[in-house]
């Protein structure tokens, strides 16, 4: 087990924009892979995300 105190506080916000659902599927797959390596992930539609709150996020992935 990793003893690094920051190891368990790592988080990732994955934003997607989609019309057909393909980008959402890709974002969900990325999130599953990240959770396997113990990253805390959130997957949100670009419509549901406030760009003003992006200032506090340090790691982002955009799937389009």
Order of helices and strands: EHEE
Helix and strand composition category: alpha/beta
Outline: flat
What's the CATH class, please? Alpha Beta
Strand percentage: 25-35%
- Looking at the structure, the CATH topology is Rossmann fold
Helix share of residues? 10-25%
List the strand order in the largest sheet.
2-1-3
Rg over C-alpha atoms, rounded to the nearest angstrom: 13 Å
Helix segment tally:
1
What is the CATH architecture assignment? 3-Layer(aba) Sandwich
Could you list the spans in which at least 5 consecutive residues all have pLDDT below 50? none
What does this structure look like?
The structure is a single chain. The chain has 64 residues and is an alpha/beta fold. The protein has a single domain, classed as Rossmann fold, CATH 3.40.50. It is 23% helix and 25% strand. It contains 1 helix and 3 strands. It has one helix at 22-36; strands spanning 11-16, 40-45, 60-63. The chain has a 3-stranded parallel beta sheet with strand order 2-1-3, with helices on one face. Helix 1 (22-36) links the parallel strand 1 and strand 2. It is flat, with a radius of gyration of 13 Å.
Please write out the topology.
Layout: E1 11-16, H1 22-36, E2 40-45, E3 60-63
Parallel strand pairs: 1-2, 1-3
Briefly summarize what is shown.
The chain is an alpha/beta fold and 64 residues long.
Features:
64 residues, alpha/beta, Rossmann fold, three-stranded parallel sheet, 23% helix, flat
């Amino acid at each position: 087990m990793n003893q690094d105190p920051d190891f368990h506080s790592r988080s990732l916000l994955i934003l997607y924009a989609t019309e057909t659902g393909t980008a959402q599927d890709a974002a969900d797959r990325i999130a599953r892979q990240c959770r396997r390596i113990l990253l805390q992930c959130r997957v949100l539609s670009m419509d549901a995300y406030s760009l003003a709150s992006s200032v506090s996020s340090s790691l982002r992935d955009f799937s389009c």
